């Protein structure tokens, strides 16, 4: 009886863990996720989010599924001294746990780009 219960519980755990999805995209300031996709999490792996900073300024984030070839290893303040970049990686293992924030409205991006173009023209004048 214990063996049957253990088998049923193992099957349930495998069935639930096989259905975990992660988000996969490059998230850029004011634009949001570029090439947003969903990936299935492989057994014994985790969803990953790596945030990249230049000094204190956030440049982009890379959201993806961990794989056996590239498993998730949480890290805080990893630095590439040649480029001056800092990387923070977080790991999670629940369905859609690395969900990016909602996409910004297109109007906000248009206002930002128009303002940036105006500033550029003013600086060139």
Automatic annotation (TrEMBL):
Highest taxon listed in the record's lineage: Eukaryota
The keyword Protease is assigned to this record: no
Keywords annotated in UniProt: Signal
All copies of domain UPAR/Ly6, residue ranges: 19-100
A GO CC annotation given for this chain: external side of plasma membrane
Signal sequence annotation: 1-18
PANTHER family xrefs: LYMPHOCYTE ANTIGEN 6 COMPLEX LOCUS PROTEIN G6C
Name by which UniProt lists this protein: Lymphocyte antigen 6 complex locus protein G6c
Species assigned in the record: Trichechus manatus latirostris
